[in-house]
Design brief:
By secondary structure, the chain is mainly alpha-helical. It is built from 23 helices and 5 strands. Among the domains are: 127 residues, no CATH class; 278 residues, 3-Layer(aba) Sandwich (Rossmann fold), CATH 3.40.50.1110. A 5-stranded parallel sheet has the order 2-1-3-4-5, sandwiched between helices. Helix 15 packs across helix 16 and helix 20 runs antiparallel to helix 22. The relative contact order is 0.09.
Length: 688
């Protein structure tokens, strides 16, 4: 039988590894307190707080609340067993301290999970006791002075130093650091295992014993004998002898989606139900094992590569699912190469995990979205640690050169700007954190101060009461965004087109408020920093299409339209006019003045665009979806790439662009794909 103390180490192993690579930016500064020590303190305060609140909510003893908490945890990863062992080891002391009206800060300092090092400030989440801290701590230590557990140090222990766990620790750490699957038999960077960088992060391998079979590759001999690209299409149609892959996918221009991101792109998320006593139940922790083995990230639900249904009932789909919906030949072709703490500085450490072969694979849409950690850190003085514009230029160019050497020709790369994070403090600082909602005793300002003190804050610059520091952080973020914009405007690459997109945060807030939402709802409630799932949905469409174009961007867009649209000059003028109007600008001399007068509201926009502002008769039906799909039968409606094979070009130009340029929420992401990401969907009718 296994030793109970060996079992005790298994579950915290995943949590420890997750926290060590958590949302706090990585750095090489050895002078600051250990991340693991800080996270240990945070974890202790959270757990003790939950125990105390469970006793309050259920009007029970501390002992009963600890047992209740353990009963909620699943058996997987020995979480339930670990919890009961922890109670057996620390429970008696926790009961004594809480019974003496000591709060979670005092309990964790007494048990030495939190420590105040010499010369360091006292880090606390709750208001300080009425009596002096020194006196209160001495009193608490007197209560547990005979406890045997105080003889052992916990903050400096290393689970992975145990021989029985050293090998698995090393392999899991390697998977996390290099962003490759833990379980990958054929070493093709794709896995049949969901977590530990498996198919929650990139398309599921359909043959883990053959390295030449993986998602995103061009079919081998039209997949007559096997499904070499894992899109589910292979074999030969017995009716005409044509391979299914050739029949369904030839000419459809499949493209994969690849995200190079940080914790926001990986969809870092700590469920509020895990720390809210009044909402806690067995169902609250069902997904905890999955979260722990995914580094507390949820890439399977992310806005870029998510493929599972939203946990909050939102119907909007990820970029990957949008591409899949338009072309089922894109099935499983997604890669989320994101990492907690990632930035332009450390991307080179794990970009090698990107899987794309110039000669064998399909082109891809790559989104570079390092939206925070180049200006964010947990240091007490975060400004010197911020990436400079010059260094960002060097880092990004190195990344782009790597992409150019790996991406197939015809790919697209989008550089994503940084947000203005002053929104966080302005909208959250005086609100109660989930941990403080029961007793109205913990605000986000207190949480931010606690994390900053421990130097484990995901972003001290923005999560700070210092307005000057918040302003400096936003100014540097704007400088870095301008650097990315200049790179996109001036640099050219042989294998991909390069674009830039602003992180239009204020426009997102305005749109959310129009829908009846409150700005603070756009942020993850537990960490008070990351975008929550609702915001991820908005980022897919509204963010990219609501931004106002400046003169330089407008000139570039007009030039792109003229160079890519296979239509006459009058049609280009019409399109430019429509785009200018929905971008918030006047139509000027572009087209008849009546166009501008008529395109005034969303309800009238479709009709106006449908008729080319009245220059063509209104058609009562739309061509899309009118007939069954070609090749994939009833599974796919008539797709846009199929239209030019069956319809004359001129007849359907305005109606399809009416759908493309509509401001309706239903079609807003189509706008991005048609007009911002040329080639991301297959529209040979308009785009080359």
């Amino acid at each position: 039988m296994q030793s109970p103390w060996k079992i005790l180490t298994v579950a915290p192993l995943f949590l420890l590894l997750s926290l060590q690579s958590s949302a706090s930016p990585a750095n090489d500064d050895q002078s600051r307190p250990s991340h693991s020590n800080g996270h240990t303190c945070v974890g202790c305060v959270l757990v003790v707080s939950v125990i105390e609140q469970l006793a309050q909510v259920h009007n029970s003893t501390v002992q009963a609340s600890m047992e209740r908490l353990c009963s909620y945890l699943p058996e997987k990863l020995f979480l339930k067993t670990t919890c009961y062992l922890v109670i057996d080891k620390f429970g008696s002391d926790i009961i004594k301290l809480l019974s003496a009206d000591m709060n979670a800060d005092v309990v964790c300092h007494t048990l030495e999970f939190c420590k105040q090092n010499t010369g360091q400030p006292l880090c606390h989440l709750y208001p300080l006791p009425k009596e002096t801290w020194k006196f209160t701590l001495q009193k608490a230590r007197q209560i547990v002075k005979k406890s045997p557990i105080l003889k052992y140090s916990r903050s400096g222990s290393d689970i992975c130093s145990l021989p029985v766990l050293a090998k698995i620790c090393q392999k899991i750490k390697l998977a996390i650091e290099q962003s490759v699957p833990f379980k990958d038999v054929d070493s093709d960077k794709y896995s049949v295992f969901p977590t530990l960088r498996g198919y929650h992060w990139r398309g599921r391998d359909c043959n883990d014993s053959d390295e030449s079979v993986y998602p995103g590759r061009r079919p081998n001999n039209w997949d007559v004998h096997q499904d070499s690209n894992c899109n589910g299409i292979w074999g030969v149609d017995p009716k005409d002898g044509v391979p299914y892959e050739k029949k369904f996918c030839e000419g459809s221009q499949p493209r994969g989606i690849i995200l190079l991101g940080d914790s926001a792109g990986a969809h870092f998320h700590i469920s509020p139900e895990w720390i809210t006593a009044s909402q806690m139940s067995m169902n609250s922790f069902i997904n905890l094992p999955t979260a722990l083995t995914n580094e507390l990230d949820w890439p399977q639900l992310s806005g870029a590569t998510g493929f599972l249904d939203s946990t909050v009932g939102i119907k909007e789909k990820s970029i990957y699912l949008r591409l899949w919906k338009r072309n089922h030949c894109n099935h499983r072709d997604y890669q989320n190469i994101s990492r907690n703490g990632a930035s332009s500085r450390n991307l080179k450490k794990f970009i090698e995990s990107l899987s794309r072969n110039k000669m064998l694979d399909y082109p891809a849409i790559v989104i570079y979205a390092m939206i925070g950690n180049d200006v964010c850190s947990g240091k007490s003085d975060p400004v010197p640690a911020m990436t400079t514009p010059e260094k960002l230029y060097s880092n990004v160019m190195q990344t782009l050169k790597h992409l150019n050497s790996h991406l197939p020709n015809g790919s697209h790369v989008i550089l994503y700007g940084l947000p203005d994070g002053t929104f966080l403090w302005d909208n959250l600082h005086n609100r109660y954190h989930p941990l403080g909602q029961l007793n109205k005793d913990v605000t986000y300002a207190q949480l931010y101060s606690f994390l900053n003190c421990l130097q484990v804050s995901p972003c001290h610059g923005w999560m700070s009461s210092n307005k000057t520091l918040r302003t400096l952080t936003s100014e540097r973020a704007e400088q870095l965004s301008n650097t990315l914009k200049k790179i996109a405007a001036s640099e050219k690459f042989t294998n991909f087109n390069l674009f830039y997109m602003d992180f239009a945060f204020h426009e997102i807030i305005q749109e959310w408020q129009k829908r009846g939402g409150q700005p603070w709802q756009l942020i993850e409630p537990v960490d008070g920093f990351h975008p929550n799932e609702r915001k991820s949905i908005l980022l897919k469409g509204i963010l990219m299409t609501s931004q106002t174009l400046d003169n330089q961007e407008w000139t570039q867009l007009t030039s792109w339209i003229k160079g890519n649209l296979t239509c006459d000059s009058r049609t280009r003028e019409w399109l430019c006019c429509c785009w200018r109007i929905i971008s918030g600008k006047r139509c000027s001399s572009s087209g008849p003045k009546s166009w501008e007068r008529r395109i005034r509201s969303t309800p009238r926009l479709n009709r106006c665009l449908e008729t080319k502002a009245g220059t063509e008769p209104l058609r009562s039906t739309h061509p899309w979806g009118a007939q069954g799909g070609r090749g994939l039968g009833k599974l796919i409606p008539q797709t846009l790439w199929g239209l030019p094979r069956h319809r004359p070009k001129g007849l359907f130009f305005s109606s399809i662009f009416a759908k493309c340029l509509s401001l309706n929420e239903e079609h807003i992401w189509t706008t991005v794909q048609c007009c911002v990401l040329p080639g991301s969907v297959t529209l040979p009718l308009f785009l080359k």
